[in-house]
Amino acid sequence: MRYEISGTTMQTVSIDLNPGEHLYSQTATMAWMSDGIRMDTHTGGGLFAGLRRAVSGGGLFITEFIAETSGHVAFAPRFPGQIVPVKLGLGQSLICRKETFLCAEMSVTLDIAFQQRLGAGFFAGEGFVMQRVTGPGTVFIDLSGEVVEKTLLPGERLHVHAGHIGMQEPTIDIDIKMMRGFRNILFGGEGLFLATLTGPGKIWLQSMPIINLAEEIARYLPSGEGGGRSSGSGAGGMLGAGAVGGLLGSILGGD
């Protein structure tokens, strides 16, 4: 299996398949494919397996792509970011945020992972349930914004705003730590808690959590009287649309 990742902030991954090779993805992520590729949508192991994926932020169904002749299929994330390819060994696992799985070889297992500590699930912003991918095989994970990789030594700690945690090795321990300083808590805008990551292991940090982008765009959306959403007509609507367009343009590198 050969692949090519194209683009900068709105990437796609195009995967070449030989006859008989196949892979799978979450539904609604395929961008284009050649004529020799056949699609087959199913639960990927039965209803229980589909429900486990749904709980972890995936879908009840997966789409399998089978190469009847040599061809290629391309996938695209739903938000600006970076596609991270990882080749997993037999039994090797990674823990990912919800909805970050894009596609993988059929030998890769997608399952749920639970937070190790109750407090981390409540306060670290990750939730109790995450996604676990297990090899062997190549998996493609889409993280939002730019990606920074760090390797923590045994006992080394890193305090992170939870939304910036994209993926980590299972050896990384996640806990919470209360923000220091009364003014930091009231006026810092970071909340009461930070996630504390402790090594050893590798982590992938994302520069633009999708929730931050959504909140920033929401600030520029016009709203009608009484809290209802504006239809977008009139000068207010045009100004609001222009603001959103300018914001998105600046994020995506437009002029």
Structure description:
- By secondary structure, this protein is of the alpha+beta class.
- The chain contains 5 helices and 19 strands.
- A 6-stranded antiparallel beta sheet has the order 5-6-3-10-13-8, with no helix packed on it. A 6-stranded antiparallel beta sheet has the order 11-12-9-16-19-14, covered by helices on one side. A 4-stranded antiparallel beta sheet has the order 1-2-7-4, with no helix packed on it.
- Strand 1 and strand 2 form a beta hairpin.
- The longest helix is centred in the C-terminal third of the chain and has 18 residues.
- It is globular and about 55 Å long.
User: Quaternary status of these chains?
Assistant: single chain
Task: State mean pLDDT (0 to 100 scale).
Answer: 80
The portion of residues forming beta strands comes to: 35-45%
Q: Total strand count, please? A: 19
Q: Approximately how much helix is present in the residues? A: 10-25%
Distance between the termini: 37 Å
Q: Reading side by side through the largest sheet, how are the strands ordered?
A: 5-6-3-10-13-8
Regions with pLDDT < 50 over 5+ consecutive residues?
A: 120-125, 184-189, 225-244
**Main pleated-sheet profile:** 6 strands, antiparallel
Q: Any idea what the shape is?
A: globular
Structural class: alpha+beta
User: Helical segment tally?
Assistant: 5
SSE string, helices as H and strands as E: EEEEEHEEEEEEHEEEEEEHEEHH
Radius of gyration: 20 Å
